[in-house]
Specification:
The chain contains 13 helices and 20 strands. With 567 residues, the chain is α/β, with parallel strands linked by helices. Helix 1 packs parallel to helix 3, helix 1 packs across helix 9 and helix 2 packs across helix 3. The two termini are 53 Å apart.
């Protein structure tokens, strides 16, 4: 709990946005602050006193150099101007904190210099008391496209964030802290052009916050991924550019209050927050050139724990829905601002079995086939592998992305009449006739009714933890829940024919809204045909009111030989 005895060690805290946040904290708690910065404090020259106009101050700086017998250059004038401006900002911050009833001291030290930092903090602690909280706001920028960045550019950006945090935690160990606040950036969360190094450094801060919280749960740890602030650093030109990308700047009074709110005890377990708009840019018009892409991926059993819940005839098998999600997610990543909406003619050509004989890598080929409408983009996709010279095609599909998803229609034939005799039984891993799926896919909870024409089911899939999802994390498309939507075909064929089936084709899949984990939903599966080799049905997933989440029209299940059905 923060109070007037709290002592915060604040990097980058004497100027700019971090200083504004510190002042707001001081107003709320009247606490103490050790402010760290690289500016060297020095008395303001007499000739600069009382001059607040930038042009006039720069004129006086030029006159000062000339009086010293020097010929001032623009760089010399700007450097002196920045030094005076920095000192004024530091003085203003210290005064503002004192006026709230708090206390503050400024230390001129670089957080990347571990020895100097330790020496300086030791003296300040003797004067203000033991540090109870850290606010790490220091940072540098070196914006360039990645091919133009130098090692020094990377080091400058990386060191302030990452080495700075490491040095602060060496001076004040986490087990001593009540609060650890890391000023990260939306760039670390979303990425941004020209800021690869800045994104890396801030994402390390995000992960560091989770690690510290894991090891020190009593500490209030939060990494705040700030968007751009409405401050002097944002020029009118930059504001215009932000507006074109639908990025809103954070007003100072609102942003600083949000920081105070995040440090309230009720948010003690919230380790990472994003405050700001996504850094995505959706152009008004698409580049008319149709492009092709090739994406390589290695699939490792150890990297995908969920595969242990999808074992057929003793071998882990990649669910077809995971291949589907790889295709859909890859298309989305190529066009931020667009979402997966529809897939035509998804086919399982040759499934991927992880039996130790699988290929070293798998290739996804994407070909743009239509983007004449700025609201949608269509791709043709194929996943294949080359295993010691043997080419195998595994999956194919046509994918459509949309900028704006259509409103979901309603399903008017939801039959909740309970007539199935075994509605309360477990449908998974009980005998050779039950579904083989493990916990990550066990979503069927109740069969309401079943007939030769239709099966109606209640479903809920428990959250599959992120670590277990491995290389197939849930994004717009949830492969674990969509896999559950195919299970009714298995139950139907078992009930009427004592046979099992696996998905092999979906003629038309449309997703209007994703289904969350741990939320009840319903499946109405209308059987269209049954042959010796396959069963075909239309699978509609919807809520209790009939509002459709997604629909699979022409979902085909290929009948399995009975010897493969064993768990």
């Amino acid at each position: 709990m923060i109070d007037n005895n709290s002592v915060f060690l604040v990097s980058g805290g004497a100027k700019g946005i971090t200083a504004e946040c510190v002042i707001k904290l001081a107003q709320r708690y009247q606490c103490k602050f050790i402010l760290l910065g690289r500016s060297t404090p020095e008395p303001e020259p007499v000739w600069a006193e009382g001059c607040g106009n930038e042009a006039e101050l720069k004129k006086r700086i030029m006159e000062y150099f000339q009086a010293q017998g020097e010929k001032p250059t623009p760089a010399m004038v700007q450097k002196k101007f920045q030094a005076i401006s920095s000192q004024r900002a530091i003085t203003t911050t210290l005064k503002a904190i004192e006026e709230t009833g708090g206390k503050a001291e400024y230390l001129s030290v670089d957080v990347t210099d571990a020895i100097a930092l330790s020496e300086q903090i030791t003296g300040a602690v003797e004067r203000l008391g033991a540090v109870t909280g850290i606010i790490h706001g220091a940072g540098n920028l070196a914006d360039k496209r990645i091919e133009k960045k130098t090692v020094q550019d990377f080091e400058t950006v990386y060191a302030a964030k990452v080495k700075g945090l490491a040095n602060l935690l060496r001076c004040v160990p986490p087990n001593q802290l009540h609060d650890l606040i890391l000023f990260s950036s939306v760039v670390g969360f979303y990425g941004n052009v020209g800021q690869a190094d800045y994104a890396i450094a801030n994402e390390i801060l995000n992960k560091s916050a989770h690690l510290v919280k894991l090891n020190h749960p009593s500490c209030h740890v939060v990494a705040i991924n700030w968007g751009p602030w409405d401050s002097g650093m944002v020029s009118p030109e930059l504001k215009k550019a932000f507006a074109e990308r639908n990025i809103h700047t954070i007003p100072i009074d609102i942003g600083t209050q949000m920081l105070v709110d995040e440090l309230a005890p009720t948010n003690h377990n919230t380790v990472q927050v994003v405050i700001g708009s996504p850094l995505t840019y959706t152009p008004e018009a698409l580049d008319p050139q149709l492009k092709t892409y090739r994406i390589h991926r290695q699939l490792k059993l150890a990297a995908n724990p969920f595969l242990q819940d999808h074992v057929i005839a003793g071998n882990p098998v990649l669910p077809a829905t995971c291949a589907f999600s790889w295709i859909a997610n890859s298309c989305e990543q190529l066009y931020p601002g667009y979402q997966f909406f529809n897939c035509l003619n998804f086919k399982v050509l040759k499934g991927i079995i992880l039996d130790g004989k699988q290929a070293n890598e798998y290739i996804l080929d994407l070909e743009e086939i239509n983007k004449s409408d700025p609201n949608e983009i269509e791709f043709k996709a194929r996943i294949w592998s080359d295993n010691c010279g043997k080419i195998r095609y595994h999956f194919s599909a046509c994918i459509k992305l949309k900028r704006k998803i259509l409103l979901a229609p309603n399903y008017d034939f939801f039959n909740q009449e309970l007539t199935h005799p075994n509605s309360g039984q477990s449908f998974y891993q009980t005998d050779t006739s039950s579904l083989f799926h493990g916990a990550a896919f066990q979503g069927i909870k109740k069969v309401f009714n079943i007939s030769p024409e239709k099966i109606t089911i209640e479903c809920l899939l428990a959250d599959v933890e992120a670590k277990k999802q491995g290389q197939f994390p849930v994004q717009t498309f949830n492969p674990y829940i969509v896999d559950v939507q195919i299970h009714p075909l298995w139950i139907w064929t078992q009930h009427f024919y004592q046979l099992a089936c696996l998905p092999s084709e979906i003629q038309n899949f449309t997703q209007f809204a994703p289904i969350p984990f741990d939320e009840k939903f319903y499946i109405s599966c209308e059987i269209k045909s049954k042959t010796e080799s396959a069963v075909i049905g239309d699978v509609i997933a919807h809520d209790s009111q009939g509002k459709i989440y997604s629909q699979m029209l022409g979902s085909k299940g290929t009948i399995l030989p009975k010897e493969l059905v064993k768990v």
